[in-house]
Structures are given as C-alpha cells and as structure tokens.
Amino acid sequence: MCSGLRSCKRMANSCPSVADKDWMVATVPGTVLTSYLNDGAIADPNFGDNQYAISDSFFCADFWYRDEFIGPAVKSAGQRFWLNFDGINWKAEVYLNGQRVGRIDGGFMRGRFDVTGLVHAGAMNALAVRIIRNANPGGTKDKAGDTVNGGALGRDNPTYHASAGWDWMSTIRGRNDGIWDNVTLTTSGAVTIEDPLVSSTIPLPDSSNADVSIQATLHNQEAHEISGTLRAMFGTIAVETKVTLDPSSTKTVTFAPATQPALHIGHPKLWWPVGYGDPNLYPVSITFAANGKVSDTKSFKAGIRQFTYSEDGGVLKIWINGRRFIARGGNWGFPESMLRYRAREYDTAMRYHRDQHFNMLRNWVGQTGDEALYDAADRFGVVIWQDFWLANPWDGPNPDDNDLFLANARDYLLRIRNHASLGLFCGRNEGFPPQPVDDGLRAMTAEFEPGSHYISSSADGPVSGHGPYRVQPLKQYFIKTPTKMHSEIGAPNVPEMEIMEHTLSQDAMWPIGPQWRVHDFHAHNPFAEAVDQSYGGAKDAAEFVSLAQFVNYNAYRGMFEGQSKNRLGILIWMSHPAWPSILWQTYDYFFDTDASYYAAKKASEPIHIQWNAATDSVEVVNYNAGEQHGLTAHAEVLDIDGTVKWQRSVPVDIHEDSTQSPIQLEYPSGLARTHFIRLTLLRGDAVVSLNFYWRGTTEEDYTGIRTLAPAHVVAQTRTTRAGTKWKLVTELRNTSAVPALMVRIKAVRSKSGDLIAPALYDDNYIALMPGERKIIHVELEDADTREESPRVVVSGFNLAAQNLASPKLTAPVKQ
C-alpha cells in the first residue's frame, strides 16, 4: 500500500503530490523494523548479535505511512467505498485526501471506515496513516547476561507484548509497531453484511446427522428503507429469505433447521482433528441483493464439528464429535520475530504439526493475529487453544486500559469465530486476569462463540503447567506424569550444524558463549551437562551438535511418552520457533527438522509402543486409533554390537484411550555399559509402531556409544516428480559390523548442495543394526528446489568419513 515512512505530524501527508522522495520505502504488510531491514538500513537482526547495532532510539517517535493511488470508478448508484485495516500496532490515525477518517486503538483491532464521500473516483488519492508507538515500550534486554521476560510493555496490551523480549526471543527493536496486516479498499452497496456466524450441533452420540445455523447481521447504510433477499450457501445447500431494513438500521437474520429443513444435514462430513479423521470443511457464502444487484457478500469455510467439555473433579476433559480428545502439541509464541509470516509459512508450519501427529497448538498470549494461522489450522486439523493478551503477572503488568482490552477482544472474537479449529479460550498465561477483564472475556466467548469453553488461567484450576523446562533423566518423565491437561513442559533443542551456521557468526560458534545466549541457550544448564556427563563431552561445535541430537531425541520423546498413564493432554514449550533459536522447538526457524522433530512425531503416534524407564515395562498406548485387535508387542534387548541378548513377544488387544503394559523387560548379565532396547508393535508382519532406545547399566550413562567403530551405510535413492511435488524414496543399508546411530538423510539441491527446506520425511535419525535396511520417504515442493533436481546426502553419529556430507543452507525468502 504505502510508499513512504518517516516520523512526522503533518495532516498534509494525506494530500496528493506531497514531496516524499526523501521518505523511506515501506513494506506493507510489515513492521517499521521490517522496512528498515528491507531498505538496507540495518543488518539482519536475527543473525548473530546484529541486534546490538540497532538503536532503540530509531523508534522513539510515531511513524507516518503514505501512499497515492488512482481511485476506482463508481460502477453503480449507491456504491460505497470502505477502507479496511486488518492489523496495526499499536494505535493509528487514518487520513484520506486531507480528511481524518478515523482511529484504531490496540494491536489486534481491525479498522473499517466508510470513505464513500472522500474517494476521488478515477483520480489521484492520498492516504496517510500515523502509527502511534507503544506508550510503555520498556528497555531492551541483553540476554548475554539478562534473561528476564516481558516487562512494562504489558501495560499497553493488547499489543505484541513478547516483543519486549523473552527467553525464546530477544527484544525486537521498535516492538513490532507498524502496519502488520493488509490494507484494502473495497466496495459494497447500501446494505452490508457484518459478523456472520456458522454453527453446528450434533445429537451425540449419534453423529449421522447435524443441524447447521447461519447468522448474519445486516446494516442499512442509507437513510431510507431497503428491501431485498438474503441468500446463503452451505456447501451445495442454498437457503434464502426476504428482508426489509428500516432506514439506518441493523438487523440480525438467522437461518436454522426449524425454518430451513435443508440445514438438517444427513451424513455430514465432520471436521476432525489430526489423528481422528479428516478435517472436512464446507464452503460458505452469504449474499444480500436488492433490486437485482448484489449489495454485499461474504465467503469463507466452516466445519461441522462439536466440542464438549467437562471440569468434573477439577480436571478439564475435551471431546470432539463424541470422542475424547487427547491433546498432543505445542505452544506457539510468535509466528516470526518481525511478523513476516504469510499464508505459505503458516501452511508449512501447520503441515509440520500434522506430520508430527500434533493435534493442538496454543496461541500463547494471543501473539499471532494473522487469520492465515486459523485458515491453515482448519485445513490441517490442528485445534487452536486461543489465549488472550495477558502474560503471567510477574512477566508483565496488567493492562492500563481494560475497556481497550475488551474492545479488542470483542472485535477479535467476531473476526475468528467461524474457524473450525478453535477449541479452547484462555484468559491469562499462568495467572488470572483482572476481574473485569476475566468477567468480560468469559461472557464474550459464551456469546460470540456458542459451544466454546473458557478457562481463566493456563496453568491453574482444571489445567496445569509451569514446566519443568529442562532436560530430565528419562525415568523422571514417567514419575512426574501429568494429572491434568498440562499446558507447558519443555527442554532446549539444539539444531543441526548448517542451521547453527545461519544463526551464529563463525567466530562465536565455539566455545558456548555470548551469541549462544543471545539465541536463547545458556552453557550452564542441564542440556549442556547431559552432553558432558551422559555422552562424554565435545571438543568443538560440530561434535556438540552431533551429541546434542541424542539429548534432543530423549527429551522430546520423553515429554510425550510420560503422559501415557493419564492421557489428559500435553503441550510442549515450544513446538515453533519465532527466530533462529537454540532453545525450545521441534523444527528450526529455517524449517529444517532435527532429532527432536522425529522423537515427538514417534511419541505422538495414534497408537504407540514405548519403554517406561521408571518401571522397566513395555507399554502400548492407544490415544486415538480406535479399537485395535490382533496386535503383537515384541521387545528386544541388544548389546552394543547389535546382537540380540533377550526378546519376548505378547499378543495385544487394546481400546482407544487406554494404556497396557504387556511386557516386563529383563536385562541379561554381561551387557555393555551402553546397550539398546528395540520395541515393535506388529499386525501380522506389518509394523504399526517401532521404537529404539539406548540404555546405560548406570542410569543416564550413554558414554559407551563413543566406543563404536565407524559404520558404513549405503544409500540408494529413487527420485520422481509429479506435478509440483518431488518424491524421494531412499533405501539405507548398514554394510558394516557395528550399529549406525542417528542416521540422518537430507534432501539437497543437486548442483549447489544447498539444503532443501521445508521437506517432509516419514522418519529420520534412525538406528541401523549390522546388515539392516530401512526405507525413508521424502516429499518436497518443486518450488523449493529452485530449479535444481533434489538428491540425498547421508550423515550420522558414527558414520564412516565417506558417508559424511554437510549440506549447505540457503535461507528461505521472507516477504
């Protein structure tokens, strides 16, 4: 939209032909900081310690955006023009052609202005927007010595509070002030459709039919009566009614099965979360027409689904379409540090969540405002736990303006409420909102999102949280199993070496030092201690990263497997990174996937076999795979050389939402200090679930892997292209006499050797015993090959030198 950006206070900015050649070119949608970066005024604040070169004094004023455009022609009598803002931060004044048209207050409030009398049809128009910076930005935090979260910026909520800096992201200079979402000029007739709502009810436990209702609020913008027809389409079902609107009036019209029998739908295609079924969606369109002309129309997609809830016994339980919903997923802080995500990035992130069997994402403190997040969650079947904009009390004060807060909440609920993925609303992170805010949020969610459920705190009452946020001994995940739906548990996650090279400058790579801390990792923590004490320590960054994958795998698998006893749901802190981080995530900022991704994916399977390290039993856990009969659980104990020393098989039948312990492990004498456990769940000869562990004769001592000789793994890849997708099928074969551990394949560009990301691998970081084979499937988009064909490289913990290859990384283009 805008062609200029600078600090200024002149209303004349909204007049055509203002001299603006000395203004900075602005990126819209985009924050002020993004404009500085795209114009080359600053170095990338996400790399190394570049943020230290960006002064907060750059942002100690309000900012003006302006643009000039040719106004569209008037196509019919009574046509109205609307100027729409989908998101600004923190407040804004809007001017068009020298006239003030309105104000937007709050970082999550839309702006919609009737500019019918101000637009110059077919002539030059000038739009100017004054972005008012946060009143309480606070100071920047130096994470090299200070890891305090949040701060005074909380007084300005709703805003992008996490821009103040948290343990998972450094302080964002300018606090993400700017025009962060789309600006559009649209037209309508005299009657507009506002705040539509589609809702559904299912007569559970019978899900063979459903009732759908469609509600629309009509507003007559003219000072005379208007009659017309309101039509709605839900899938292929069409309904309509005659409506007469008094002058300058508003009327809410509802289509319901009582008057529209077609909305009583037989055999509906239900919307299901990941693992429960397909996330079916129906196209919806609502149109008002008068005198044979369409006045306004709204189109979106909606799902038929029904969440139900219980807090009996002080424990929150959730059902979806009559089946108990067991959450496995993660917290999501920001989409991206400078709010640069668009639909493609959201699709990639949600596809990754689905691939990991993650069925819930928590929009932590409501810090993602793009509707593209909810669109992607709808399509991929990821349930959204929606927070409002209140961090825990010790990380940010209460907002100064409760009315501003609730006005933003009301508008935001009306904006997102048709998304099938919305499953839970929460007032505050790790605490309770101020009473007026809590009461207001509870009432609004009940009114605007019928059938929804609101909880006041993310970690109190019917749910739990508060971590822990560290690597733990494996058995601890089973000893301290959650007794409520648990909103936060985490561990650091160190990405692969090519990602580290795009995160830290070369001279800061080793030893662990200040730049590691800037990117959220501190040397003296249980993760680094685990590398030293459990795996024998590292002499350089590459060795540390290699050993870190073992720690990643055990921690992220353990967090999910440890909930098997009660199965009340668990969200890790976090599943998604906002910037290049060395902390909590299951994939990195550049959409590469390391060991934690595949550990979480394995542990979150709908039906899963696992080792309970606290009881030494083999468990079969059926989260959401339906009734399962005719299975076989097979357990093996292997020595360090891969030879089987003990094994047992037991038949298994298991109900959904249950856990069995069919086998007790036994350890023969004479096992090496580090040895292995391999568990397989079979249906006939077909593998349903496979799991591999390393174990020490002394708890948490895995240093025996350092004695393994180099292994040689042969890889053969078949590559095919179909339309816009590439599919790679790689067979790996261990031709040596020793186990190959943490074997990893990567798709790279055939000529440059650059890493291709994003890409979906059905498994990775695998163990191959001597003589064993494994096939791994990879899927990627042709656009991500950048006009090169893909090939595969193989690496691993103890692979022979001829196997090793370090693919280069080309960072994805950010808009």
Question: Can you walk me through this structure?
Answer:
The protein has 815 residues and is mostly beta strands. Helices cover 14% and strands 35% of the residues. The strands form twelve sheets. The protein has an eight-stranded parallel beta sheet, with helices on one face. The protein has a five-stranded antiparallel beta sheet with strand order 1-3-8-5-6, with no helix packed on it. Strands 11, 12, 15 and 16 form a four-stranded antiparallel beta sheet that branches. Strand 35 (674-683) and strand 36 (686-696) form a beta hairpin. It is globular, with a radius of gyration of 28 Å. The two termini are 14 Å apart.
How many DSSP helices?
A: 11
Strand arrangement in the largest pleated sheet? 26-25-24-23-22-29-28-27
- Taking pLDDT < 50 over at least 5 consecutive residues as the criterion, the unreliable ranges are 1-9, 809-815
Assembly status: single chain
Q: Give Rg in angstroms.
A: 28 Å
Structural category is mainly beta
Q: What would the principal axes of the Cα set say about the shape?
A: globular
How can the largest sheet be summarized? Answer: 8 strands, parallel
Kindly state the number of beta strands.
Answer: 45
Mean pLDDT: 95
The helicity comes to: 10-25%
Distance between the termini: 14 Å
Strand content: 35-45%
